[in-house]
Amino acid sequence: MKYKLPCLFLFFAPFSALATLHCPAINEIKHGAGVYTAVAADDTEWSGTLQGELPQFGTIKDFSEAMMIVEGSSEEKRGKFQKCTYNLHAEGKQIDMFYENKAWLASISDKPHWKYEQGGFLNYYTCSDVAPEACQFDIVVASATF
């Protein structure tokens, strides 16, 4: 009898987290010929490709920001994770790193470093002025409800 209540809760939870991820640490990003990659915590991959002429100094200097576009209301803190952006040592160059599975929803509920912003036609959250590992998000899927 003592297990019925927790089990019922699982059926009625609207979303469940598959994994908690974060932007790749700078020292975990590998690059060559304009392609940047890093392994994510769930063994998938982050990747980014420089456009145009390859700079002489293509190593990563520092972390710029992460971005998630809001789906639904901003209070839900849920949407499509977009990218992690890093500044390169080459003057004015940046690289955007994208998470391998772009179809899954992300949640930043209880993640303190994300800031809500509105711009043009988009509502989004950004995470900046911290280490990339501090820009955490949960990959979520809709749970079955009965």
UniProtKB/TrEMBL annotation:
Residues 1-19 form the signal peptide. Keywords: Signal. InterPro entries: DUF3757 (IPR022231). It holds the Pfam family DUF3757. This is DUF3757 domain-containing protein.
